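Cross-check.
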Amino acid sequence: MYQDQIIIDGLQYCRWDRDYFMILQQSGISAIHVTLVYHEDARQTLTRFGQWNRLFEQNADLIVPVYNAQDIRAAKANGKVGVFFGAQNCSPIDDEIDLIEVMRNQGLLIMQLTYNNQSLLATGCYEQCDNGITRFGKQVIQEMNRVGMVIDMSHSAERSTLEAIEYSSRPICISHANPTFAHDALRNKSTEVLQALAQSGGLIGFSLYPFHLPNGSQCKLTDFCEMVAKTADLIGVNHLAIGSDLCLNQPQSVLEWMRNGRWSKAMDYGEGSSSNSGWPDALPWFAPQNGMRNIYHGLLEYGFSQAETQQIIGKNWLNFLETSLIKQQ
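Predicted model, tokenized:
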């Protein structure tokens, strides 16, 4: 049954090459949310689009760009992997609100209002003081709603996340994070945030990044499924998905770019511990070849129904994007 389903991973930032595209295709993944940029400005973001255009050209037998939900269905039908783009910061729009629609037209479907630090729009989860959504941020939310760009608050602080949910006229997503009741990491989300997210029709993608999982790199598949089940009891299966945050075959320099950008001379340890200075040990049951398949079967064995498992593994993402990417008149 697994190979017949729409399988969507709601966040990855791996080393993108033909070998990995072949692995994704063989793994049965229908579509993947690719982080296009972290701290790149508007001009640098256009270069990233150009690089991906070349990848699409050179690997047209394996991957296709996604601009709407129907593109994901078409990718599945044609045995290819659909790729849709997101930004893990608001840097692609610089300080210019008109660039939101420009980037959306280029194919930037999702944008986080912050990464870990304070941005022009909102507060990141590593800041000590959370001032919420800024004046500029409120206007950006309205414009993102208008053009059909999804608001993502995965790296944002508590108040900012709650205000984004309140101010947005459309459901938002938290593409890659976990509940704090499972593991109390800075980026994980409180029960209050999860409930507000669900009440507004939003979606959370469970992260497989070990620093944000119960028992870290020792997290077992059953531990992961237990976390999913407790969240389902709290907010319902309709709001649950996967956003693995997989960063496969990336060097230390990429990790430093993710955390430091250009703002810091010193290594940013994120969660506040120098033990987190490098890549964590991988989860043995979430290798790219079979990770989503293992989650699929793990959820079934844990007690989720076939329909519920199909929702979590991809259908909820598909339904969310179906309505979220439509431009408002």
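The chain has one domain: 2-324. The first helix runs from residue 18 to 27. Passed to J.P. for a second look.
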